[in-house]
Q: What sequence folds into this?
């Protein structure tokens, strides 16, 4: 199957789901009438329109002409590893920010990304991670007075 | 005399140590993100917005505006020296700028880009100063139907400019409108789609959404493969263009400035379109069009002036109507609201200090940028040498801390990561970000105006076509949406699309 068709089908199904969800949900919060539109008015009609457009896109993948896809999904065969690892690092940062504290999690976060995404030497990794966690702490906590979590170590 | 007293007021506001400092900080940050590929002004403004909460609104807006026009200066540096545009608006500068650098004329290329930007920036601020107040007076006559139709037209123009399928761009806009309905309904107070999550009661935060869509998604796209950069290693010298350079560039700069300003007023990625249009015009009227692309100075002077002038023009809809023309201005609008300033036609008369202070800061900012970009060019070349493997963790760190410090909420950070995933995938599936962002920002405003208009007309949707101004906006929107079926307009769209491809608006 052509890539353009497959991509458009996947995304059409996704937006179809979103549209259906919104117009079903809107019925639970009072849609109102044209005279007196209620809080569910826009979610309802927006949902209906999005559903209709997704169906149109889906139908076009069977019959219509679509602009061809020019790029492949990942430019390199191992790109997905870096992409996934970066996303996981972001999620981990969010989870461990409170228990570990800002300075420590920042150090670990930067060290991980510098060492493993485009691998740098350990020396370089440590220098960058130490400098950036200390500098970030001085900038955000001491200079901008942002209240960032201290964690179990207390810094 | 009226203007003179306003200018004096603006100067009074600006020339305090705090505001001069924030102006400097803004243009400095702007140049920095302009130089760094992979971090645009949109993400940069979103990044710094949370840190402006405790300063007064005028200083905050002065700084955020500085980032926007400062980025246009910085963007040209990388185009000329590395052949990689720092900003999409500088893509066209690569053509002749890099060729000039290869011929050992990097100095005059950088010089004319900075001088052209300065002249254009000044001209467009002048235009903004003269056009905005009368336009705001005119806009006072706008009621809910006019506002709704105008915002509709704004979104439709962005959709029209979308590279790729109009249908997919429309879907993104509707999706954005739907996301905008999340949170408490402003008219009835009903909670919609919040599922008991406290952070969603005020709606989806603009900052987490933008940081995710532009900051995180951009970085993730860049970690797919290592970016190779080749720097012109020869020392940059002779920054001052000679007399012949000036003779060749004078009219391109003036034409670019005027063109950029007027394109800037329209919704869409104005800096990009105006730069491309300026290049096309210069090439067309040139006596030696065949030399374009081999390193002629007009090819740098015109577009670089145009993209700077466009940033000034883009402030007009913001100050007069309270409607953003692109995502950078949308974040500024968000900043207004966060600082409790109600945007709209009353803004200039209600907050003269904000309007005139910002205007005056743009004059000063342009002078600062000239100093920052010419004598200090060596510094920016050094910044370019910071390898991306070290840079990107820091950009992500800024995104994380920026969003977390908004409300000290892990939910908002999660939201940002979610938008990052969505933005990354949507780009892969070739959906446009611009209609989505604009719809998220102005969606709630559109909804309120739609409902108010329908209440006024007692449910009769004809109110939108019975009012003449509103009818005009609706007709323009319809024509643009039907453009794929109108051959002459469809062709124009194709041409424009080629220009704005890959742009973050």
A:
């Amino acid at each position: 199957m052509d890539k353009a068709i497959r991509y458009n089908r996947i995304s059409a199904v996704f937006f179809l789901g979103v549209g259906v969800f919104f117009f079903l949900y809107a019925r639970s919060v009072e849609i109102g009438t044209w005279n007196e539109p209620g809080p569910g008015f826009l979610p309802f009609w927006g949902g209906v329109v999005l559903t209709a457009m997704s169906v149109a896109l889906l139908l076009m993948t069977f019959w219509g002409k679509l602009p061809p896809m020019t790029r492949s999904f990942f430019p390199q065969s191992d790109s997905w590893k870096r992409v996934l690892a970066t996303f996981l690092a972001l999620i981990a940062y969010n989870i461990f920010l409170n228990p570990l504290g800002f300075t420590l999690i920042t150090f670990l976060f930067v060290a991980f990304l510098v060492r493993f995404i485009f691998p740098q030497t350990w020396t370089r990794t440590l220098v960058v991670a130490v400098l950036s966690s200390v500098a970030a702490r001085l900038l955000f906590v001491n200079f901008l007075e942002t209240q960032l979590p201290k964690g179990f170590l207390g810094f | 005399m009226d203007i003179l007293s306003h200018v004096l007021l603006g100067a009074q506001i600006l020339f305090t140590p705090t505001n001069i400092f924030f102006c400097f900080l803004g243009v400095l940050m702007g140049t920095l993100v302009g130089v760094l590929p992979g971090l645009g002004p949109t993400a940069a403004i979103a990044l710094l917005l949370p840190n402006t909460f405790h300063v007064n609104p005028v200083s905050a807006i002065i700084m955020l505006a500085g980032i926007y026009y400062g980025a246009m200066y910085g963007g040209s540096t990388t185009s000329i020296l590395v052949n990689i545009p720092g900003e999409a608006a500088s893509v066209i500068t690569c053509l002749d700028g890099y060729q000039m650098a290869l011929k050992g004329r990097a100095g005059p290329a950088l010089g004319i880009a900075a001088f052209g930007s300065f002249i254009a920036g000044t001209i467009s601020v002048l235009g903004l100063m003269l056009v905005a107040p009368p336009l705001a007076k005119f806009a006072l006559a706008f009621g809910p139907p006019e506002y709704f139709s105008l915002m509709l037209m704004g979104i439709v123009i962005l959709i029209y400019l979308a590279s790729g399928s109009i249908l997919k761009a429309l879907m993104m806009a509707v999706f954005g409108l739907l996301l905008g309905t999340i949170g408490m309904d402003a008219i009835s107070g009903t909670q919609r789609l919040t599922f008991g999550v406290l952070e969603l009661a005020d709606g989806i935060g603009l900052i987490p959404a933008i940081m995710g869509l532009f900051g995180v998604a951009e970085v993730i796209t860049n970690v797919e493969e290592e970016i190779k950069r080749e720097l012109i290693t020869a020392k940059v010298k002779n920054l001052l263009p000679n007399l012949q350079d000036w003779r060749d560039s004078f009219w391109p700069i003036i034409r670019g400035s005027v063109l950029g300003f007027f394109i800037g007023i329209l919704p869409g990625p104005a800096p990009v379109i105006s730069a491309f249009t300026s290049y096309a015009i210069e090439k067309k009227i040139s006596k030696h069009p065949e030399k374009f692309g081999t390193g002629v100075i007009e090819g740098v002077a015109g577009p670089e002036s145009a993209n700077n002038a466009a940033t000034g023009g883009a402030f007009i809809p913001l100050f007069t109507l309270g409607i953003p023309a692109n995502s950078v201005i949308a974040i500024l609008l968000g900043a207004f609201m966060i600082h409790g300033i109600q945007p709209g036609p009353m803004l200039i008369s209600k907050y003269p200090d904000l309007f005139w202070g910002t205007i005056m800061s743009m004059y000063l900012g342009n002078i600062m940028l000239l100093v920052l970009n010419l004598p200090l060019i060596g510094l920016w070349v050094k910044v370019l040498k910071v390898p991306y493997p070290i840079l990107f963790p820091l950009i992500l760190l800024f995104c994380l801390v920026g969003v977390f410090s908004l409300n000290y909420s892990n939910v908002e950070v999660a939201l940002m990561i979610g938008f990052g995933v969505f933005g990354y995938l949507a780009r892969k599936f070739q959906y446009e970000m611009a209609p989505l962002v604009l719809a998220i920002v102005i969606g709630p405003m559109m909804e309120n105006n739609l409902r108010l208009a329908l209440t006024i007309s007692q449910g009769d949707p004809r109110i939108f076509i019975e009012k003449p101004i509103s009818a005009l906006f609706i007709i323009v929107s319809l024509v643009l949406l039907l453009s794929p079926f109108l051959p002459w307009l469809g062709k124009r769209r194709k041409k424009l699309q080629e220009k704005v491809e890959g742009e973050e608006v």
Observations:
- The mean pLDDT of chain A is 86.
- The longest helix of chain A spans residues 3-26.
